[in-house]
Amino acid sequence: MGKTKQQKSLDKWTKQKWRTASGKKSSKTGEVYAPAKTIAKLKSTKAGRKKLAAANAKKRAATKKGKQHAKHGLHKGKKR
Question: What is the pLDDT of residues 18-48, one digit of tens each?
Answer without folding.
Answer: 999 999 998 899 999 999 999 999 999 999 9
